[in-house]
Predict the structure.
Amino acid sequence: MKKILSVLIVSLFLISNSLADTMRNYLNDGYKLHSVTNSSDGTALFYHLIKNQKKENTIIVTCIVHAVTGKTVKCYNL
């Protein structure tokens, strides 16, 4: 458990600079970070962002980020 947690924390530090532009664009548009999920094989991180416009109009965006390089692979708007 400690190993998994330490890998996740180190990964977040390494990718913070690479995510700055992509995440900053969404955060500036009013999105909030909901959660971060690690893939089962540890090669990708899934950033889930939400934006509440109205109670029935919640926008969800999921960005897939390579865990080692920190490069955003693709973002999906659900």
User: Anything to note?
Assistant: The longest strand covers residues 44-54. The CA atoms of residues 28 and 73 lie 20 Å apart. The chain has a mean pLDDT of 79. The first helix runs from residue 2 to 28.
